[in-house]
Amino acid sequence: MRGSEHNAVPLRKAGYGIVEPAEVSILAKAVSDYCSSHKIERVDERENIAIKVMRLFGRGVTDPDQLLVELEKVG
Per the domain annotation, does 4 fall within a domain? Predict the structure, then answer.
């Protein structure tokens, strides 16, 4: 398993930790859009953004536009 326990993301929104394919697409696009707009290319930095997106998702932020707004706040 990659990462460490402090990077674990509880998926309260997702039943039993399952994320639907449409949700995965939204999350992946949020990471991609944010990293593109901030010129983030390093894998470790992209992974950190992905963790932040998953934490936001776990807190109930599921709208694609709102994910980017919230990501700007926690960037």
Answer: no
How many independent structural domains does the chain possess?
Answer: 1
Q: How far is CA 23 from CA 18, 32, 58, in A?
A: 10, 14, 12
Is 3 buried (19+), middle (13-18) or exposed (0-12) by CB count in 10 A?
A: exposed
Q: Which of 9-13, 24-28, 32-36, 54-58 has the lowest mean pLDDT?
A: 9-13
Rounded to an integer, what distance in angstroms lies between the CA atom of residue 40 and that of residue 61? Answer: 22
Residue 62 lies in a domain: yes
Give the tens place of pLDDT for each residue, 63-72.
Answer: 999 999 999 9
User: Looking at residues 22-34, what average pLDDT do you find?
Assistant: 94
Domain range for 47 is 10-74
